[in-house]
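Attaching the record inline, Q. Sequence:
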Amino acid sequence: CRQLHAFLYALDLHRKGYPTRIIVEGMATRMLAALERAPLRLQKAVSDAKDAGLIAGVCLQACSGCGDTANPSVVEAIKARGVSFLNDLENHAGIEPFVREGYEVIAV
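Structure, as predicted:
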């Protein structure tokens, strides 16, 4: 439910003219890797967000559950979806580039 809402909120803001980007973090990285097993409504929201260019990337470190190394199967599945990885903050997705560009950070 949390993942669906994050994508729905981003799509709503985008449609209303707000510049919007999504960083996929935490356990949501596994959802993205196994998207074909997610509920259809979530699959559609992710697809719509990807088509709209809203997905900035996936936290590389989160692909391992924040362990020492990324989970190769999750990483490969996300690569196959054509989504990039963010790792500019000690292998985590940094938010400073987005703040510098004027984005307001909202965690869902």
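The first strand starts at residue 22 and ends at 24. The chain has a mean pLDDT of 92.

More tomorrow.
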